[in-house]
Amino acid sequence: MTEKRYMPLRELDVSIQINLIHRVHGLKEAENCFNNVSSKLKGFNAHIALLNCYVHEKSAEKAEALMQKMREMGYANSPLPYNLMMNLHYGLGNCKKLDDLMNEMEGRGIKFDPFTLTIRLSAYAAASDAEGVDKIAKMMEIDPLIVPDFSVYAVVAQGYLKVGQLDKALPILKKMEELAVTTRKGKFPYDFLLKLYAGMQRRDDVLRIWEMYKQKQ
């Protein structure tokens, strides 16, 4: 396809190609693809694709170098590259890096999105930091640009449960129930609610959700 003159490559095509090559042939070939395309096709999307490959491989050194290059080129002006870097350092257990990246975002005037906050909340929960979980949950609640969906509430509820704050998890579960009734995501919301209520040993709630599930499905 790329050899057809009437189908010139676009930058988006290159980014897809990088990700596919990484999946099939590995990181080295993905890097070769990135390095061999023309400079006009090596924009934001291509850099994000390569950064995503480094994150997947947990290659912190290469990811940091590419992120710095993106800063210098003006490509680090949205939450996406920061979220990828946060995901990388969360997976590596470098929680200090998460705060550094969020502070940098604030300094650059880049708004946090739900992914930014859920990554940080998950890290706080993994560290059993109850104050941190509560801080991020409140940030989500008051941010007018963030409209929590079922998956966001799920991360918040799991965070509270992980640090033993059942009283704060319950209202979140109620909001998740409301979304489960209105969503069209099939059985997933009910499966998730059943698992959480069962983990809390709330038998009546498990039976109630089971009845809702049967009526819905």
Protein architecture, described:
Helix 9 (150-162) packs antiparallel against helix 10 (166-182). With 217 residues, the chain is mostly helical. Helices cover 75% and strands 0% of the residues.
Relevant terms:
12 helices; mainly alpha; 0% strand; globular
Nutshell version of this structure?
With 217 residues, this protein is an all-alpha fold. Helices cover 75% and strands 0% of the residues. The protein is globular, with a radius of gyration of 21 Å.
Give the topology.
Blueprint: H1 11-25, H2 27-36, H3 44-56, H4 60-73, H5 79-92, H6 95-108, H7 114-126, H8 130-142, H9 150-162, H10 166-182, H11 188-199, H12 203-216
Helix pairs in contact: 1-2, 1-3, 2-3, 3-4, 3-5, 4-5, 5-6, 5-7, 6-7, 7-8, 7-9, 9-10, 10-11, 11-12
